[in-house]
Amino acid sequence: MRFPLLLTLQALWASVCQTMQHYPAAWGHYDVCKSQVYTDEGLTWDYMACQPEAMDMTKYLKVTVDPPNITCGDPPETYCALENPYMCNNECDAQNEDLAHPPELMFDFEGRNPTTFWQSSSWKKYPRALLVNITLSWKKTIELTDDIVVTFESGRPEQMVLEKSLDYGKTWQPYQFYATDCLDAFTMEHKTVQDLTQHTLLDIICTEEYSRGYVWKNAKTVRFEIKDRFALFAGPHLHNMASLYGQLDTTKNLRDFFTITDLRVRLLRPATGATMVDENNLSRYFYAISDIKVQGRCKCNLHANSCVFDKEKLNCECEHNTTGPDCGRCKRNYQGRTWSAGSYLPIPKGTANTCIPSNIGPVTRVCDNELLRCQNGGVCLNNLRCQCTPAYTGLLCEKPRCESELGSCGGPNSGQAALSSTSLPTLLLLGWMLLRGASY
Ligand SMILES: [Ca+2]
Asked: What does the pLDDT look like over 129-161, one tens digit per residue?
């Protein structure tokens, strides 16, 4: 009679474990760099991979609009609506605060009515191109975590390029091309982010999706889709971040793709609303942008969980004995081994790859990732000790911690280990009740 009950218990246990494996909270947020733990050797630090929270990066940028005299209002100018050349009540005057449209208005608080926006002067020199570069500089490497969204107050441009720099503006690479006709403007085929696959994710595409002004005059945004690109690895609702983190860890190109120091919006041709440009009323053609959204986090190489804005510049608050604006090197006296970035793996805590004191070299190493391997799922920390899974102990995690107990020595990861401590008494109680019920 008791045999089927034991089977029931085992099935219950298995299903609880399975549920835990799909529970997203078990994945790390990577928001803690270290914590104190009790080990066989006493109280020590346990180091983990960590990163600052994603935030609104537009608060920390410097904006430059080029050419310098391209912002409207000097001299004052009156603009007409694109859709209606007789509706000319849009005034711009740089000397009048209420009528000025400086670049800062692309980054102020949105949601007010009427909206605030930057505006260019009009296309007075037609047919010469109306070119404007808007450069956003951070003086710091940052990692994009959400879509870049540019909201236009004018019609969306007929041609534009979004570019990025990874070297503080020395060199630029295109991120995406935008045009009403990709073939005509850039001799590229029209594609959308949905055409990309895991293998072509790094391809630079031209899209017509955000440029068709005349038909969709209420569509105001131009987007660079970061999340859709993440989804190629992490699934449609980004529920499998483990897969994405794994890829980011092992593929430098992929990591670099989402990393920037500067962004540049190159406006190449304004909305014209029709096939022919009305040369008698060029004040219908201009660019106006009400908002640019950039979400991201400081790149700290998984060695810092905060990033501070000091003297007009963002800086990682480095842990793990690292230093530098991106925690990109070991501190003095902590060069016992080569610096390396932290790692997202194994999930949920990752690996800190801390810098170790210079006088602790290979002589005293307890473990490494090749010869002196930690056993039974243990992780080598700083070459100094193995961090064992709950079920094992010993210098290299070679000894089972609870040989005498029956099959409940804890699972292979910390999520399940936590579960075993809280749920085992419940399960035993349940088993006892079932057995009692069976004996009546
Ligand atoms: Ca605004």
From this structure: 999 999 999 999 999 999 999 999 999 999 999
Q: How confident is the model at residue 39 (pLDDT cuts 50, 70, 90)?
A: confident
Helix (H) or strand (E) holding 252: helix 252-257
Q: Are 294 and 57 in contact (CB under 8 A)?
A: yes
| CA–centroid distance for 81 within its chain | 38
Ligand 1 centre from 227 Cα, in Å?
A: 24
User: pLDDT tens digit string along 216-239?
Assistant: 556 899 999 999 999 999 998 888
Q: How far is CA 66 from the centre of its chain?
A: 28
Pairwise CA distance, residues 87 & 11, whole Å? 74
Asked if 63 and 104 count as a contact pair (C-beta separation under 8 A), the reply is yes
Q: What are the residues whose beta carbons fall under 8 Å from the beta carbon of 177, sequence distance 6 or more?
A: 160, 161, 185, 186, 188, 204, 205, 206, 207
Residue whose C-alpha is closest to residue 25's, from 389, 411, 414: 414
In the chain, helix, strand, coil percent, each to 5? Answer: 20, 25, 50
Ion ligand 1, residues whose Cβ is below 5 A away: 105, 108, 116, 290
Q: Give the model confidence (pLDDT) of 359-390 as tens digits.
A: 754 556 677 776 678 888 888 887 778 888 88
Alpha-carbon distance of 26 to 23, in angstroms, equals 6
Q: Give 15's contacts (C-beta < 8 A, 6+ positions apart).
A: none
Q: How many A from CA of 185 to the centre of ligand 1?
A: 29
